[in-house]
Amino acid sequence: MKKSYLFIFPIFLAACTSEPKEVKNSQLENMAKDSRILQDVLDEKKAGFNASADSTKKQVYAAGIQAIVDAKITEKALQVGNTAPNFVLNNAKGEKISLYSELKKGPVILVWYRGGWCPYCNLTLKAMQDMLPLYKAGGAQLFAIAPEAPDSSLATAGKNELEFGLLTDHDNAIAKKYGVVYQLTPEVKKYYEKGFGLSDYNGNNKGELPLAATYVIGTDKKITYAYLDADYRNRAEPMAVLDALSNTQ
What we know:
Glutaredoxin; seven-stranded mixed β-sheet; two-stranded antiparallel sheet; 12 helices; 15% strand; disordered N terminus
């Protein structure tokens, strides 16, 4: 049974001091109650893949996930209590975003996604967008990071109607500082190149991608929440992130 985070909402809302004036408390409560568990949506997508993909492709993808497990990427990545490294990255509009500058305004949520080509990423970004008013009500800002080029980020933002910043991390330079980068197996890379042209999206032929990681970072630059999973089909629940924000300054 999946855990529900709805019970924290009234307490969290009462503690909010920077709620957007245009959003009423009752509206926020309804949003929280109506929000669907993201993992259920992702599992439906996974079931569709398993029903339609051939056995070879399923074996190759499963082996790719196991390679991440064997490399212990999730164990080596930054964890709760670590200091989040600063970065300056461009958003889809070409504006420079500094993490430490943004932290002066309040907590920051960082969501790594693989690229706009990834259906699981798009579902996750949409779910985070649905929760954005709640995050803002808690004084937090949300940014999503991917190695895809700015033009691709702009397209990703447009098709998902995103109102938060998408940041371009060329060659996964910042993702490497957070320890969330992994190497695709040659077999998976071959599927990705043939299927949608991964190298064109990322501007290199390295075959590296970030985990679908999510961090909540407090104004003291400390990580208060870290979601790390070797399987890109599993993602942080938006309500779990809201729960983490209630205990983050």
